[in-house]
Structure formats: structure tokens, C-alpha cells
Design goal:
By secondary structure, the protein is mainly β. Helix content is about 0%, strand content about 55%. It contains no helices and seven strands.
Amino acid sequence: MLTEEVPYLIVMRASQVIDVSLTPGDKTSGFLTPVVGIEGGIQIDYDRKKQVLFWVEGKEDDDENVSNIHNTFIVILNGSNNTVVHTH
């Protein structure tokens, strides 16, 4: 039996990653467990097959006003804890 897929967008907003429905007029969310506590998030990616969310945190360099990558994180979208996979 096939289940209908609901289109949604994964968005990094301030210190969290949330989902937003892509269906016009639909204000539903909750397709994924929000990830909170992100500091200086600059990029997100999602592996649909493994249901793993990746994101990169950076810190603004005062001298050159550019972002330096400090940590790369992953979280499995079943409510598991965040894991640091790379530190700079």
C-alpha cells in the first residue's frame, strides 16, 4: 500500500530547523521533529532515504566579516540526539 507524500520545505530559522507545508493555504507543520539550539547555522541538507538532516554552524570572523565553518552536525529525524561529525 502506497502512502501519499505531503510536500514540505525544511527551513533553518534563527536557532532552529522547522518544516513548512508547500500546499497553498495549508498552515500545517510537524512533518519532522524541530531541531533547536543551532548557533550560527549557515547551511542545511537532507538525506531522504536515510531520513538524516545535516547542518553546518559557523561563526562570523571579525577581521574579514566572513563566516568560518566550525561544526557540522547530523540528526536522524526520529528524535535522536544531534551528533557532531566535524569540528574545525
